[in-house]
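Technical appendix A lists one of the benchmark inputs used to test multi-chain prediction within the project. The record comprises three sequence entries:
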Amino acid sequence: MSKIPADLKYTRSHEWLKVLPEGIVEIGISDHAQESLGDLVFVELPEVGRSLATGEACAVVESVKAASDIYAPVAATVVAINVQLAESPELINQDPYGRGWIMRLKPTAQGADSGLLSALDYQALAAAG
Amino acid sequence: MPFIPHTDDDEREMLAAIGAPSIEALFDEIPPNLRVQSLDELPTGLSELEAMQLMAARARQDRRALCFIGAGAYEHHIPAAVWSTITRGEFYSAYTPYQAEASQGTLQSIYEYQSMMASLTGMQVSNASLYDGATAVAEGCLMAVRANRRSKAARILLPRSLHPHYRAVTLATALNQGLIFDTLPYARDAGHLSLDSFPAHDGQDFTALVIQQPNFFGVIEEVDALTDWAHAREALVIAVVNPISLALLKPPGEWGAKGADIVVGEGQPLGCPLSSGGPYFGFMTTRMQHVRQMPGRIVGATVDADGRPGFSLTLQAREQHIRRAKATSNICTNQGLLMMAGTLYLSLMGAEGLERVAATSMARTEELVRALTAIAGVRRVFARPTFHEAVLTLDRPVAPVLAALAQRDIQGGLDLIDHYPELGPALLVCATETKSSADIEAYASALSEALRPARAA
Amino acid sequence: MTLSLREKLIFEYSRPGRGARGQWPGLPASAAVDALPEGLRRRRRPMLPEVSELDAVRHYTRLSQLNFSIDTHFYPLGSCTMKYNPRACNAAALLPEFAGRHPLAPIEHGQGFLSCMYELQEMLKAITGMRGVALSPLAGAHGEFAGVAMIRAYHRARGDLARDEIIVPQAAHGTNPATATMCGCVAREVAVGADGDADLEALRAAVGPKTAGIMLTNPSTLGVFERRIEELARIVHEAGGLLYYDGANLNAILGKARPGDMGFDVIHMNLHKTFSTPHGGGGPGAGPVGVSARLLPFLPLPIVGREPDAERVAAKPIYRWLGERDLPQSIGRLTSFGGNAGVLLRAYVYMRMLGRDGMRRVGEYATLNANYLSARLQQIGFEAAYPQRRASHEFILTLKRAEQDYGVTAMDVAKRLLDLGFHAPTTYFPMLISECLLIEPTETESKQTLDAFISAMAQILREAQEDPEQLHGAPHNLPVRRLDDVRAARELNLIYQGPAG
């Protein structure tokens, strides 16, 4: 049974979003996602400063059997990336909501996260398969 | 029936187990109107004896001639141990090493090959081969576009002195993905890429510069200046090299201040027979930072469940069977057996053997050029040093001269009129370590005769 | 105790100054070498082995003994067609006149070779029902590229520039969508129905003015014949698209049905599958393409042409290479020279040995073997993915029930088969069926071999119930145990760095 913290928002493509102070949001992939991918071997991160449109592919997580794109849940600028993932991609497997965070974004529009899923809705989606 | 072992009893028992009345019944899901009515257009079968007699007769039609053609395929001595080893059934009839535990022979050979090619080219990592030199150049250009984040242009600079077939294949492969190709001229007298002809590109965003060393004419390029020029403009350098020449020439990893970024080339000179153009193998090496952009298979060392060292395919997430539409390339089957031939060849020759092959080939070509240019009407075209090929001009069209030589079982070289009409009647000649002084004498003598009638007029 | 490699690296045999001296030419004095500019000369030797000829031969011979191969093991890899590679084909291709011929040699010196190539083109046309064949693509994926490029060229020539979508079934081989991308197209997936045939309703919805074409194979990757192929072809053609046939499964219907008759506009053939050329541990292959009349102008170059009888002149060569002048609308040249000629010669000899009856028998006995294995494996307790369908030359078993009941996966079964002396079938492809094994015996295997495989599978089923650890820990009896893929990808060690590394 994969973990789905109630205080986060989610996307259909298995990213989670956490609101941080000063309007920054933090992005990662869900426990369900890391479980399906298996042991991660590499993470390709965007450059700090890059601007992203909603739904734009901006990172790649790679395991032995799959390579998945990560899509920006909101239109935003990249303000930070988790450089630990270069040496230790397994952080995402071990702690997908904590030390396995992938990037931090500054959304370009207010209320842009309204299209995202609640934990409950995401749980239904993940269960459906 | 060749190769099908079933007896009548076998067939009967198998149909009984399936519960079908006949083999034909097994095809009952195919609509009747789609069933083949007649195969009469095809010949009837042959026994192995008949087939070998047929092939021997066809082979006899193709006389063994004295070959002085290079142009991307080179005749070198292949030690007998190369093909006797790689045609062992365990290599010849093995599959792609997806089940690593059952393929350690293939996988370790690939790892050794990768190590040799990386070192030979002065780079940090190699793939397990591509189809051939031409497609390797195409893949190199596509890879440069993926790897060069700074460039928005997808524009590649190709020298006119790049092998014309490599250029044609690169365009046919990469234009569909929106790449743009610009041509750089060569210096008319010396035959190399001269920076003096480059200023038109200053300020323009381009992704990569392709440098072939030696170039199609056999001429040695000023690779350091060219590499630094491209890097100063934030473009990548794609080196296209002859692996035998790397025994004597500086490897691309050491070109300029920072070295080339991607290295590709044709592996045929390493243990692959001329065989009318294939199978050969393409090679590609690069720096570690670009390894995820490199197409083709890659083998990595690892350990097994007991901690014993072993090898497996790695970084497969880039490849078609996982990444599908976003794969680095669609390549699946590559040229495994020929890559093995290359590995055996490099193991048998070693660095010293390779140097001697390179030096002897250069010496033979030098001897050939001296002998031919001693004939009136034959001139060497380019002034710069060359590897083991040279361009000569004749005082008359080349085709009839080559035809006259062919009549005497001498293949004199490649007529350049179609690809390089600006050179006039020009001929690309090559002599490797397989040519003796007697062979060169025979060519010179035949050419002298072929050119004689016009002189009398 | 630290375990070491079964056979050490070639570099570990090196000793300074050692070498296969009998292979080295003498070192001549050469003004040309002296003339090489100092700044362009190599300073340090490359790291290549310094070994005797015996050590090299011994090392690679020992490595070969660590491999499975068709010559040593039954190899039921689905969609790979691991049939016997006749040695006569190799002997013929390596005849000195063929092996020693330069690709740019005059055609007068190559009529024997060119006649074989021409006849190969003609035989491939006849067996597939296509109007034209080009031999130059170097592998199946390369042929796919040629095929999709021809489809694009066809639409462009008609002025129809909107068509950039290639429809691909969900179960398609990964090369299909990868090829679509390489040709600057967008791959659009359609679903497959519950009975294994394509979902025609979904297809109807997917085609339209943006459809360039559809890539299919028949029998499909699910191992079953696409029964409504003619209707499918009509749907796509009516929408203005073309049909591409992936020839990976041609062995199932060789001599029994032809893609050209089904309505396909372009096909590629895998000579290293259907036509028995060696797999070589990962190639070389050959992927010739065949086309219907409307795509003839776009075939890749070069192609072998023959002077028509009426125009023959005595002593002039009959066979020649056709080039840009003959096919001005060609998609171009896809390889340095004429293709993998040595592979093409092997396929030619194979087809001549089979002849028309032999080719028909290939389809028949490949299908008999697959249906036999499928029936018997189901009888001993395995679950087929499409039990109600005829197997083609291959079929799929799903282990999802075994996974639920015993925790045993397709991977475990595959690895245990290796212990029992059989190469594993294809696993986890097509991705549509969970825990699947795609099994293709080919026609060159005897009933005895198939029965031995069935016994091994029966043993595995017993072990799944009684002693699953045997399976989880497999293989136990090979030169290495199960290898750590994750470590191979995380701690990249891709070249030997010397004794310290």
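Chain C touches chain B through 204 residues (CB under 8 Å). Residues 341-379 of chain C form the longest helix (39 residues). Comparable benchmark entries are summarised in Table A2.
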